[in-house]
Amino acid sequence: MPHYTYDDWKSRAAALSIEGRAFMDGRFVDAASGRTFQSVNPATGAVLAEVAECDEADVDRAVAAARKAFEDGRWSRMAPGDRKGILLKLADLIRENLEEMALLDSLDMGKLVQDAVTVDAPGSAHFFQWYAEAIDKLYDEVAPTGPGDLALVRRVPLGVVGAVVPWNFPLDMATWKAAAALAAGNSVVLKPAEQSPLSALRLAELAAEAGVPDGVFNVVPGYGQTAGRALGLHMDVDCLAFTGSTATGKRFMEYSGQSNLKQVWPETGGKSPNLVFADCHDLDAAADMAAFGIFFNQGEVCSANSRLYVERSIKDEFVARMIARAEATQPGDPLDPASKMGAIVDEKQTEGIMRFVDAGRKSATLVTGGERVTVNGKGCFVRPTIFDDVAHDDPLARDEIFGPVLSVIPFDTEDEAIAMANDSVYGLAASVWTDDLSRACRVSDRLMAGTVSVNTVDALSAQTPFGGMKQSGFGRDLSLHSLDKYTALKTTWIKYRT
Ligand code: NAD
Q1: Which of 37, 248, 294, 347 to mutate to test the pocket of ligand 1 (most atoms within 8 A of CB)?
Q2: Quick one: which of 42, 219, 357, 393 has the fewest CB in 10 Å?
Q3: What is the pLDDT of residues 1-36, one digit of tens each?
Q4: Which residues belong to CATH 3.40.605.10 in the chain?
């Protein structure tokens, strides 16, 4: 990885040429209405681009292009090995344009460009490569019927996949949906979040350059209430893969019922618990990862470890470690490689975080942070914040804040820790820190979460499914299991003479 300086990033940002039009049927187009909305850099307030404000008419156009492409088989009936070649080329193009992809996300939603160029953008290339390489190695089934019957059970692409994604990892959330859905042979209509549409538009352009045929990958930027809703209600969309808040996930289930009973795969919010037992010998490692688990990406992470349950005998010394780490993670310009934390996505999200913080000052003990700040006199930034002795039923411990705010809750017994951890409407992820193997197995068995990380946080890879339980949704991204979302089981039964 090259060494980037602050000046490098500033000059790259100044030279960036940003496309804000929608991408349909292989080319950039304006919204039919001609309307646009502004993409704003939350670190500076500067307008980055005018973006096509797609609505129902544009979603109709994109879905029609996607359907036509699916029906004529230009992608859906291409040999898997050929689709693989094109998606591998796309992975290469993302790598060739790594800095640009990283900058688009950083400028659009405030994340550190250093994280975007080392985590998000390479992650996107890796996930396209992973699904590309997988797709010509999957075999279907022949059912064990009797002689005279040959029953083939095959996975076939669904048709048109709608994907609606959030703003916290714009490129990666788009990739998690698109890479698997495209690899499986579907056409895709992607609606990025209105706060962060830029990297998805560039991704679509790179996909076309790689050889993804026209109409197969379309991007319709716009608002949730218009473009998102139109996709959810569309009669010709076969599957809606959603990542975002639980409230919006529920809406997509309703849209499906009101329209064509399309499959809906919600991957929604979280309030993930992190349990630190006194028998964990490496409390420094636990504190490093607990801080990463809540402060990485400004805490705007669905699986952020926002509830820290610490065994009472070590609670005070552990909180002291956490305070030191929080104080070393202060916000700065997202383009400066020396910055430890970026900007919050926008004014509305910043105000929402500060409402939780202000209420928390009265209900719990604020031990560090709690302030909104500016960088170079501008922008939406919040200091890493820790509340100690949070009551288990306090909103700080129950609601998804989606910002750099940690709630510390002491516990006395293993059963009590598990009961409090599970007493949440969410079940996306959880972490356990202990040196006792039996306890690690016992506790991780009982935690209601899609992923339990033991002696680490937020364990995640292309090889393992990512998704939740309870109101964190039931869709799974990543791994071969995510292909289940984008394919249907089809039986072809052949009678033959014996
Ligand atoms: P959000 O639900 O407000 O928006 C997500 C997407 O849905 C956006 O594209 C938005 O335009 C669209 N949308 C909003 N309202 C809509 C409506 N009425 N009809 C149709 N579409 C609509 O969520 P957000 O604020 O963008 O993202 C933060 C949320 O995403 C958090 O709850 C976070 O936990 C969740 N998230 C979950 C995962 C996961 O894998 N489970 C990953 C990342 C983020």
Answers
A1: 248
A2: 393
A3: 789 999 999 999 999 999 999 999 999 999 999 999
A4: 6-268+473-490
